[in-house]
Every structure is written in structure tokens, then in C-alpha cells.
Amino acid sequence: MLLEVRDVEGKFLGKIMLRPGQEPEILELAAAAFSHFVEVCWQEGITDLREIYDEQTRSYTLMEIEVKQNDPLYPLAFRDFLGRAGFTVHELHLELETEIRQLLAKFSDDNFDKKDILSRLPSMPYREQTFLVRKLKELEG
Amino acid sequence: MPHAEGSQALNPESTTARRSRLLHLINEAARGLALAGVLATAMPSEARGQESREPQKLEQQAEEQSKKLDAVSKKEDWLKKTFGAFFYERAPQLRQKLQGALEDARSSGKTVLENVAESGEGTQETPETPKILLTDLEGKEGVLPSHVLRQVLEETYPKGWVNNEVAIVEQKSVISDQEEAQEEEAARKDYEFKGEVPVTRAKFYMEGGVARVVLYPTVKKTGVKEIIEGDVAHEVLGHGNDWDSDNEMSANDRADLLHAVYQRLDAPDRYRSSYVEGIDRDISDPQKRDYFKAKEYWAEIVSQFFKDADQLSDTDYEIINWRVASTDPQFNWKAASQRREQLVRQALTSQKNAARSPRR
Which residues of B touch A70 (CB under 8 A)? Predict the structure, then answer.
């Protein structure tokens, strides 16, 4: 899982790659303090949330639990942990970028809209990416 | 040889032009997503058909009613089949309203939707809506006064999503060891925590048709905005406005919402959170697991929607936008999110400044 992380002011801090059981890999770093934070999280551990339903009281309880480094859900838990810590975290969906490029491959390279979509792709929000994939697939179908 | 009418569509050049035109429309629509915080809802639901209903002949009305009854029955059958006894036990509001709508429609000769409309469901928040009771909210940067928290909840979330749904949001300053032990014991009944010690952050109760949310001292280590957009949004906005807890949703919409969310649980572009994905290994009973997953998936996508809806897939976005538009069609998530940040920041900054200034 690839994440782009910014501070509360929107300043870019870095990109990190997360894989279960592996130390987070910082691919682009803009702030050394962020790298230190990630290191501390890896060494000291992070928590995740679970919600429990109690049949007797018919209530839901939100609980914080520890997550192991080799847990398959560690990357997702790390992303959410960064969010709770106050960072603005965007998950980058490279597979969707690839899919959109493939779906657009059949259009001519000088097509204005193809060029426009491709130019926006690196910073395109997930909602727009999923919308484009769905619509382009409908167009193919 | 003369060309048959419509054969132009087979001409490769025309096909290319048509595809380019369609790509242009798709691109324009995609660009529109980025610009607007509010979208016209596209969620299919029989319940929303009433907006454009025109006078019909009695025969057509009877036919329509028969179809609607059939649709509601099918929804009920689907719910029973999917969630079984678990559905009957855990979703009393949904069950009662769905069955009530069916019975009323059968006995009165009116359509299910007319009964729902007459009972006042599906309408907007009334002026008499009871106000939520709030305490101050303490996070890692300081304390957000209750009046600012009220402003945040009332101004930056859609009408009808807080008041009349949640009665109390309170933060406990301390929690007894006994209370913590009880929570842990309750947690271990349903989940296998493999040695970890869970710590309580928040609790959601239903009392007399409205919800009560209690935040525990653990949340104080989290930022105020993150508590509001995470814990509070998950509990108040998410659980407080789902198919079982919501106080304004029609019976049809309840069933439609649960169905729509259930279909998202395994979708490749679903919103992934360790929280929801983890339910698979924590609960083995499939009906119980699916119902909990749907409840939690909804609460998670709702809190993400109000924080940054661009991080959701467009399908999840549409599901929530459909519900938001039903009580607050003008709601703009982007503007609301910016306003929330501004309100929290201003309150915390003025508090810090006040603490720094010397006493006279």
C-alpha cells in the first residue's frame, strides 16, 4: 500500500510503502521529523480500532487494540493510525492509474480528453478514478 | 450499393467520433466531481419515485401498489435470507417499519409509499427537533467548549443527521477499573483478541429511539478534530443514521440502504479499513459477520465522507449522497469540512491565547 502523507497545513511530508511484516519504506521524504515518527511507530507499535456489540445492553463499544507488525491488516491499520495522529493521508491507487491508461489506450494520442485525463491522473482523487474506470468500462462494453 | 439507414454507426470513422464524444462527456462529468461537493443523487429507490408521481387511473394505481407490495416483500425475504434470525434480533426498527409498511398498505388499499409518507417518515427535520446534549471535548491540543462542539455538529453535518438522532454526546473524564474490566469482558465474548488488552474509546447506546454516545478518557491523546471526524462521526453520524437507528428513514429506504451497503462488502473498489476487514476473522457466524460488517462499513464510509469524500469510490459516495440529499439537499461536504476545521482551530487557538495572556 502506497501512502502520500501531508501535515495539517497540507505540506507534503513523504510517501511511504507499507507491506505486512516489513518496515515501512519511505520513498520520497520531505521532512525528517516524519521519518522519525514512522520509525517510532514501527518500533513501539501502533493500535487499531474494533467495535464490539454487547447483546445484553444492545450497545456498541469502540475499542483500541494493538496490531502486530506481521498482521496482514498492518498496512491498513498504519494508514488509519496516521490519520488519527493528525496527518492527512491519501492512499495512492496505482493499479487504477494503470487500468485507466489501459482503457484509454484505444483512443488516439492527440485526443484532447485523453491527454487531459492522463495529465490529471497522478493527482486524481480515488472517487474520480473509480468513476472513470466504471464509465470507461461501460463505454467498452 | 445503397446504404441502409443507420449503417453510419458501422463506419469506423463515425464510431471513433462517437467514442470521442462519449469520452468528452465522461471527462466533463469526472471534472465535475472534483469541482462540486454536492451532486444530484443517482441512487435508485422506489421511495424517491413519489417526487414525480402524476395522477393515475385506479387500475394503474392498483397495479403499482401490487408491484410495490411485491418489492417490499422481496426486500423482506432477502433480509431474512441474508441475515436470518440475526436480522430479526438486531434490527428491530428496520424489521418493524418494513412489516408495518406492508401491513398498512395491505389493509388500507394505499401504496406502501403513501403510508410511509403519511406517517411522516422520510421528511426533513422538524422545527421541534430536540437538541443534542453535549459536554466539552478534550483532545491532545486542549478542550473544545461544548458550545463550539454544538456549532460543529449542527453547522458542518447535514440537517437531520445529528439532532433527533443522537440525544447525548458526553466525554467521561475518568473510567473506573471495574468499568474497564466489564468492557473488556464483553469484548472478549464476541471477539478473539489473542492476548491483546483492548482499551475502550467510545460507546454507542440506543435509548428510547435516540442514541447516546460516550467518549472515554483514552480519546484525549487524539486531536480534537480527529476525535470529531473519527470517533464522533463514526458513532453519531454513522451508527446514528443507519437503517436501524435513523429516525426519519422510510421503511423502503432502510431496506434499500442495507442492501446497497451489503453489496459493497466484497466489491473490489470498496473502502478498505482494517476495522471492517478485521471482522472477517473475528466473527465466524456468516450471518452475524455480514450484518456487523454492513453496520461498520456504513459507519466507516460515513465518517470518511464527511472528512474527505474524494477518498471514497464513486459508488460509496453515491450511497451516502443519496441519504444526505434526503434530509439536506444543499449540503456540501467540502465546504462543511473546511468550516469544521476553521471552527475547531479558532476555538483551540483562542483558548491557547487566553492561557498565555497574563492575569490582571
Answer: none
